[in-house]
Design brief:
11 helices; single chain; BPSS1780-like; transmembrane helix; transmembrane; membrane
């Protein structure tokens, strides 16, 4: 995470352009009901390559250009990256379904509004929303980490989605302690920032906009940090002399 933020410090303007470009594109996608949400989930590994390519350029001492955001859309790996995205969508739905089946009180949630869930503590406790979200996160976040780490293996090492997930899983398993600290530090930073924004600005439009902005920044920094791990664990593809890809 320190190296991820270090990359932001080296090229704040370039990476900020990518962060806000990503926020704009995902906002446009999410405006479309259901289809946009599905497309957003499927394209997450594709956008992840944009941030990791930016980290690769920073490591090589090159400038970060806005066009890097769509780096994953170019080249023959796009279809395979989208297949990773489909797996991501299925994992997200499965994790949510398991969380709901185990802990959620669907009767209490059926007629609840968002405003009630934000202000009525008894309703939140009765609905089982907190353990549902925790269970979903415990299932989803490790899977998301494996899928995100598989994306550069598909893009730069020419692996298929299944092989990339296999290598990604065992690479993370072998360095489980380091990846656990990475996930924990990212979680704590995210919670601290969001709570601070909420305390200062509340749940109004400004507070929500700032939460979204900081979430996208942390999302991008996390993928820069994942690139650092990728470059240390996996060798550069044959014929690639880019020093940023060498362990």
């Amino acid at each position: 995470m320190k190296q991820g933020f270090g990359m932001l410090k080296k090229q704040p303007a370039g990476l900020s352009t990518l962060f806000f470009g990503y926020m704009l594109l995902t906002t446009l996608l999410l405006v479309v009901p259901l289809v946009g949400q599905i497309a957003h989930s499927v394209l997450m590994p594709v956008f992840a390559i944009g941030f990791m390519t930016a980290a690769r350029e920073i490591g090589a001492g090159k400038p970060v250009l806005p066009a890097l955001l769509i780096a994953g859309f170019r080249g023959p790996a796009l279809r395979k990256l989208c297949m990773l995205g489909v797996i991501h969508l299925l994992v997200f739905l499965a994790a949510g379904a398991i969380g709901v089946l185990l802990f959620a009180n669907t009767d209490a949630l059926r007629d609840a509004t968002l405003a009630e869930l934000q202000t009525n503590r008894e309703l939140v406790l009765e609905s089982g929303l907190v353990p549902t979200m925790l269970a979903t996160a415990l299932l989803y976040i490790p899977a998301l980490l494996v899928i995100s780490f598989a994306a550069p293996l598909v893009q730069w090492n020419g692996m298929g989605p299944g092989k990339a997930l296999f290598y990604s899983f065992f690479a993370i398993k072998r360095a489980a302690g380091a990846f656990f600290m990475f996930a924990l530090s990212l979680f704590l930073i995210t919670v601290a920032v969001l709570l601070l924004v909420r305390a200062v600005f509340g749940f109004g439009s400004i507070g929500f906009a700032l939460m979204r902005m900081f979430s996208e920044v942390l999302y991008g920094v996390a993928h820069c940090a994942l690139f650092v791990a990728y470059a240390h664990i996996f060798p550069a593809p044959p014929g690639d002399s880019d020093p940023a890809l060498k362990p």
